[in-house]
C-alpha cells in the first residue's frame, strides 16, 4: 500500500507506471491520474465465468500489459474508484504471472488522490510504446487447489471467507472465519496498523499463521491479500475454484415446511428475538424461502404473496388487501400512521413478477396471516429465496382472441409441482419462469431463466423454449434453443433445468451463479444437449414460432375474445393502500366474474365486464387515482422497493417516482407533447440490482452516491433506450447524476427526441441512431444548480 503523496513523488520522478483499472469510459471522460495507463478490470477479470478459477489466460494478460507499455521489471501502482478491490485484483494477477517489479496499491484509490492535496485529473491519454511482456504462472504462485483447502480445513492453515456477512452466514467452508474486506478500511482508507492487528487477531489471523483466502468474486480476497502482505504476513495464499459441492453439503436445512412450522411456533413463543436467539441469525436468510424477507428495520419483515400467472380470485385479492390494511402497519417508533408522507400506512406493492408484497409484518402475526391465506388458497411459500419463483404469465391469458395456448393450467401445474418441494428448495440462486400463450410475449421471455412462447409442431400447439435471460450484473437476453415443448411437458422441463442448475451451478459464487451464466458458458447448443440428458421426454424442434410482437402493458379498456371487456388500471409504482386493493377486488366481484389480475408492469386488471358493468367500473371514484387512461409518465413508471425498506437500497424510489411522474405529466401537458406519447417508461432501481428492470426502460435509473466540490448525496446512473421487443437493453450512458437533476434530464432528453426524431421513429430507435457523445451532451447540458453550503448532506 502506498499513499497519494508517495505516488506523487515517485510519479514525478518517473520511477513508477501508474495503472488505472476503471472502465475505459471513466478513464477517458472523467479523467485519471496524470500519465496513468488504462488496463480496465473487465479486460483482466471475467465476471461471467463460472469455470474453476477466474484468472485470465497468461497470454491474454501479457497482451494487456504489453499494450499498456509495461515491462516485467517495472514498479507498478494500481488504483480504482471502488476502494481498491479491482486494483488489488490486477496486482494479484500480475503476482501470479511472475511480474518481477514492485507492485503497489494506492491507499484510498482515486478519491484519496484527489482529497489528499491540490491534485487534478488529466484527460490526456499517454501513448505507451508496446513491450514484449511475458506472463507465465510462477512455480511458487500463491494460488492453491482443492486439496490445499482440504488440508487447511483440517488445521493446516486459517481459512478466511472474504464474502459478505450474509453470504457467510448462509453457507461457508467448515471452520472458516469471516473477514469482510470493507472492515479493513475506515472512510475508504486502510485502518491504522494497531486497529488492523487487533481485528485480525480477534479472528485468529496472526502473522505467523498460514492463511488461505476464498470468496466468490476474487476481487474481495485480492484486497485482503494485498493488505495482509502489506502488514508483513509472509504465508498468504488464495483459492478461487468451485467449492459448490462442499458448501452445498454444509448448508443449513432448507425445508420450507419445517421453516413454516418453526415460524408458527415462535409466533406464540417469544417472537422474533426468541427465534433468532435459538435458531441463529442465519435463519433470517432461510425465511425468504417461505416469503419472509427481513427488512432493514430489525424485527420486521416484508411478506410476499404468490399469484401464479398474476391471477387471483376476487376473494383472494380482498383477503390480501385486508391483511395489508390490518397488519402492514408501522410502529410508532417508525412514524406509525404517518410513516410514509405519500402512501400513509397499511399499503402493499404489486411487483414485476405479479406478486404482492407488504411491509412491517411481525413474526407474531404471521401464523394468523397464513391461516387467512390457507382459507382462500393463497401461499407465500417460495415467493422469495433460491427456488422456482412465482411463474409469470400473460395478464390477459384466456382473454385475448389471438391466444394460441391457454397457459393458466400450465402455470398452475408448475406452481404446484415445486411448492414446498424439499429437493428444489435450495437452488444455487432463484429460478425464474414465464409462460405466454398469445403472440405478444407479454410475460417477457427474454429476461427469464426459462421463457416459453407459443409455437407449433405437426399441427400441435405448444411452446418454444428460451433459456438464460436475466438482468442485473451481466445482463443477457435469453437464447432460443430450438426446443418445442408440449403443454404437459413444461413442469418436467422446469424440473430438468432445476436439476441441471443444482449439478452445475455454483452455491458459492453469488456474483455469477444465475442460470444465465451457465447458458453462456455452455453455449446454447451445448446447454440444450446437456439439458436433454436430464429430461424425460425427447427434444424436438418446432415447425413454426408464433410470437409476432411485444406488448409493454395492458393499461386501458380492451375487448375480450367473448365480446366482453377487460380493463387495465394503472397503479403508479405498484403501490396502493390495502383497503383500496380490497375495494378493487370487491369491484371485480360485483361487476366481473370474481377474478382479479396483476401485471408485470405493477398494474392490476379487472376482466369479464359486460357493457353496463364496464360503464359502472369506469365511473367508480377509485379510477380517478388508478386510471385506465393515465398520463404517459405515470403510465410508464416502474420502481423497486428502494431505500425505505431494502438493505441494499441507496436511493428512495416509491415516493420520489410518483412525485416525478405527476410533475412530468403536468410538464408534458404544458409542453404539448402528452398526447404524442402513450407511455414514457422510467424504470428506477434503488441500487445496482435490477428489481425494477431498468434495462428495459426508455430511461433506466439505478441508485448511486456522489460527491463533488460542494456536497455529497444521492444520485443515479442513467441509461437510455431499452426495448425488449427487439431484445435490446439500455446503454448505460452517464454515471452519478445528482438525484434532483433527473427530472430535468428527462425533460431535456424528451425535448431533443421530439425535435430530432423522424416520423414514426421510436425512442429506442432514436437513441440508437444518435451517438452516445451527443446523448451525453443532452443529458449533461442542464443549467447548474446553485451550490449548497459546503458540507451539506443531500438525501
From TrEMBL:
One of its GO terms (molecular function) is 4 iron, 4 sulfur cluster binding. Residues 12-122, 153-255 form the Rhodanese domain. Keywords: 4Fe-4S, Heme, Iron, Iron-sulfur, Metal-binding, Oxidoreductase. InterPro entries: NIR_SIR_4Fe-4S, NiRdtase/SiRdtase_haem-b_fer, Nit/Sulf_reduc_fer-like_dom_sf, NO2/SO3_Rdtase_4Fe4S_dom, NO2/SO3_Rdtase_4Fe4S_sf, NO2/SO3_Rdtase_FeS/sirohaem_BS, Rhodanese-like_dom, Rhodanese-like_dom_sf. PANTHER family: FERREDOXIN--NITRITE REDUCTASE, CHLOROPLASTIC. Belongs to the nitrite and sulfite reductase 4Fe-4S domain family. This is Ferredoxin--nitrite reductase. The lineage of its organism: Archaea, Methanobacteriati, Methanobacteriota, Stenosarchaea group, Halobacteria.
Amino acid at each position: 500500500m502506498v499513499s497519494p503523496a508517495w505516488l506523487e513523488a515517485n510519479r514525478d520522478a518517473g520511477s513508477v507506471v501508474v495503472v488505472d483499472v476503471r472502465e475505459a469510459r471513466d478513464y477517458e471522460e472523467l479523467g485519471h491520474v496524470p500519465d496513468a495507463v488504462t488496463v480496465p478490470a473487465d479486460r483482466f477479470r471475467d465476471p461471467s465465468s463460472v469455470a474453476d478459477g477466474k484468472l485470465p489466460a497468461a497470454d491474454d494478460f501479457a497482451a494487456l500489459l504489453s499494450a499498456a507499455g509495461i515491462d516485467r521489471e517495472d514498479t507498478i501502482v494500481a488504483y480504482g474508484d471502488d476502494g481498491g478491490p479491482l486494483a488489488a485484483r490486477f496486482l494479484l494477477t500480475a503476482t501470479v504471472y511472475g511480474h518481477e517489479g514492485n507492485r503497489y496499491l494506492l491507499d484510498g484509490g482515486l478519491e484519496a488522490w484527489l482529497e489528499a492535496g491540490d491534485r487534478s485529473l488529466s484527460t490526456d491519454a499517454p501513448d505507451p510504446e508496446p513491450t514484449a511482456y511475458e506472463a507465465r504462472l510462477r512455480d511458487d504462485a500463491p494460488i492453491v487447489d482443492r486439496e490445499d483447502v482440504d488440508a487447511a480445513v483440517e488445521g493446516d492453515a486459517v481459512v478466511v471467507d472474504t464474502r459478505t456477512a450474509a453470504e457467510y452466514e448462509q453457507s461457508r467452508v467448515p471452520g472458516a472465519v469471516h473477514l469482510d474486506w470493507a472492515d479493513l478500511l475506515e472512510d475508504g482508507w486502510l485502518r491504522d496498523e494497531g486497529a488492523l492487528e487487533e481485528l485480525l487477531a480477534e479472528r485468529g489471523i496472526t502473522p505467523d499463521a498460514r492463511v488461505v483466502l476464498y470468496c466468490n468474486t476474487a476481487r474481495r480476497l485480492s484486497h485482503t491479500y494485498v493488505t495482509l502482505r502489506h502488514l508483513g504476513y509472509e504465508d498468504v495464499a488464495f483459492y478461487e475454484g468451485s467449492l459448490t459441492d462442499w458448501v452445498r453439503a454444509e448448508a443449513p436445512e432448507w425445508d420450507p415446511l419445517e421453516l413454516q412450522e418453526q415460524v408458527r411456533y415462535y409466533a406464540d413463543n417469544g417472537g422474533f428475538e426468541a427465534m433468532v436467539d435459538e435458531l441463529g441469525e442465519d435463519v433470517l436468510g432461510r425465511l425468504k424461502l417461505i416469503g419472509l424477507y427481513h427488512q432493514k428495520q430489525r424485527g420486521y419483515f416484508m411478506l410476499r404473496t404468490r399469484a401464479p400467472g398474476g391471477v387471483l380470485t376476487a376473494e383472494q385479492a380482498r383477503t390480501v388487501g385486508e391483511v395489508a390494511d390490518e397488519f402492514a402497519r408501522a410502529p410508532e417508533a417508525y412514524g406509525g400512521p404517518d410513516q410514509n408522507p405519500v402512501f400513509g400506512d397499511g399499503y402493499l406493492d404489486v411487483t414485476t413478477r405479479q406478486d404482492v408484497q407488504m411491509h412491517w409484518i411481525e413474526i407474531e402475526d404471521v401464523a394468523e396471516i397464513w391461516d387467512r391465506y390457507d382459507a382462500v388458497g393463497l401461499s407465500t411459500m417460495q415467493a422469495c429465496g433460491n427456488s422456482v419463483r412465482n411463474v409469470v404469465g400473460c395478464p390477459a391469458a384466456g382473454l385475448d382472441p389471438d391466444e394460441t395456448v391457454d397457459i393458466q393450467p400450465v402455470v398452475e401445474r408448475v406452481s404446484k409441482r415445486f411448492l414446498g418441494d424439499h429437493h428444489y428448495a435450495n437452488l444455487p440462486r432463484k429460478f425464474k419462469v414465464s409462460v405466454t400463450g398469445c403472440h405478444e410475449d407479454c410475460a417477457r421471455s427474454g429476461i427469464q431463466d426459462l421463457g416459453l412462447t407459443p409455437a407449433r409442431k405437426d399441427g400441435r400447439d405448444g411452446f418454444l423454449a428460451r433459456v438464460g435471460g436475466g438482468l442485473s450484473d451481466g445482463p443477457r437476453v435469453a437464447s432460443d434453443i430450438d426446443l418445442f415443448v408440449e403443454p404437459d411437458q413444461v413442469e418436467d422441463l422446469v424440473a430438468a433445468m432445476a436439476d441441471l442448475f443444482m449439478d452445475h451451478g455454483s452455491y458459492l459464487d453469488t456474483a455469477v451463479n444465475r442460470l444465465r451464466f451457465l447458458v453462456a458458458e455452455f453455449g446454447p447448443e451445448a446447454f440444450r444437449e446437456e439439458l436433454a440428458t436430464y429430461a424425460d421426454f425427447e427434444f424436438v424442434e418446432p415447425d413454426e414460432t408464433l410470437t409476432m410482437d411485444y406488448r409493454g402493458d395492458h393499461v386501458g379498456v380492451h375487448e375480450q375474445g367473448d365480446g366482453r371487456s377487460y380493463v387495465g388500471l394503472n397503479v403508479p409504482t405498484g403501490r396502493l393502500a390495502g383497503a383500496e386493493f380490497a375495494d378493487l377486488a370487491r369491484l371485480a366481484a360485483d361487476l366481473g366474474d370474481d377474478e382479479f389480475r396483476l401485471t408485470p408492469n405493477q398494474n392490476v386488471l379487472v376482466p369479464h365486464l359486460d357493457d353496463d358493468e364496464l360503464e359502472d367500473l369506469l365511473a367508480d371514484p377509485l379510477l380517478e387515482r388508478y386510471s385506465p387512461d393515465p398520463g404517459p409518465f405515470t403510465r410508464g413508471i416502474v420502481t423497486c422497493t428502494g431505500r425505505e425498506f431494502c438493505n441494499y437500497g441507496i436511493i428512495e424510489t416509491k415516493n420520489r417516482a410518483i412525485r416525478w411522474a405527476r410533475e412530468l405529466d403536468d410538464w408534458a401537458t404544458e409542453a404539448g407533447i402528452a398526447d404524442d406519447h402513450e407511455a414514457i417508461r422510467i424504470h428506477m432501481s434503488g441500487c445496482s440490482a435490477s428489481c425494477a428492470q431498468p434495462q428495459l426502460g426508455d430511461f433506466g435509473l439505478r441508485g448511486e452516491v456522489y460527491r463533488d466540490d460542494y456536497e455529497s448525496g444521492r444520485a443515479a446512473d442513467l441509461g437510455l433506450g431499452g426495448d425488449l421487443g427487439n431484445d435490446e437493453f439500455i446503454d448505460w450512458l452517464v454515471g452519478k447524476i445528482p438525484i434532483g437533476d433527473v427530472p430535468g434530464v428527462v425533460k431535456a432528453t424528451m425535448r431533443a427526441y421530439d425535435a430530432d426524431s423522424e416520423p414514426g421513429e421510436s425512442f429506442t430507435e432514436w437513441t440508437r441512431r444518435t451517438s452516445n457523445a451527443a446523448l451525453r451532451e443532452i443529458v449533461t447540458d442542464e443549467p447548474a444548480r446553485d451550490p449548497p453550503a459546503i458540507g451539506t448532506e443531500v438525501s
